[in-house]
Q: What sequence folds into this?
């Protein structure tokens, strides 16, 4: 029998969501939605097709004490929306900085959940950051709106490798300064 480890990571509540740490029992749902090419193509790190063991590796790294990124499930079960609506993460950087990344299950695209989750993490500031960075693919303007609506400032263009696409993809980079 496997038990989830207790991770030192806060639960963050927003109007419609509970942002809770990823747990082993999320594996099936994570695999279902992570296998969706529409989701994978808008991330840097989700391969498509999703290889065996990828979900277990992700959950294992999310539960590790020495992890560099905290992952939260966007859980809307308290408001009747569903237990797994997407993921949002904060990857630690140096000098009190983090990078935020997120994705939402396709059935809930354009419902404001990513915006709500990003604002929730900014308000909670669980890493006591002074700055949060983000980058989005230029062919995903909805994700750019999430950031600008949350008060992020555009920094410039860059590119990053997408595992699902097997190529470098042009990005827009943003930052948000906090009091943290």
A:
């Amino acid at each position: 029998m496997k038990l989830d480890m207790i991770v030192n990571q806060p639960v963050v509540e927003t109007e419609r969501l509970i942002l809770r740490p990823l747990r082993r029992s999320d594996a099936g749902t994570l695999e279902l939605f992570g296998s969706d090419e529409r989701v994978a193509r808008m991330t840097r790190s989700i391969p498509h097709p999703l290889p065996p063991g990828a979900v277990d590796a992700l959950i294992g790294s999310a539960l590790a004490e020495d992890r560099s990124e905290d992952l939260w499930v966007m859980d809307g079960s308290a408001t009747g929306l569903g237990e797994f609506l997407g993921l949002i993460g904060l990857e630690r950087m140096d000098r009190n900085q983090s990078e935020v990344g997120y994705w939402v299950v396709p059935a809930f695209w354009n419902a404001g959940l990513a915006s709500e989750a990003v604002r929730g993490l900014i308000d909670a500031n669980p890493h006591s950051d002074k700055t949060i960075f983000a980058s989005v693919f230029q062919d995903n303007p909805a994700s750019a709106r999430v950031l600008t609506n949350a008060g992020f400032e555009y920094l410039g263009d860059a590119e990053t490798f997408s595992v699902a696409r097997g190529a470098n993809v042009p990005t827009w980079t943003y930052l948000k300064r906090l009091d943290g």
In short: The two ends are 40 Å apart (CA to CA). The helical segments are 27-34, 37-40, 54-63, 113-124, 141-149. The chain has a mean pLDDT of 95. The CA atoms of residues 13 and 19 lie 6 Å apart.
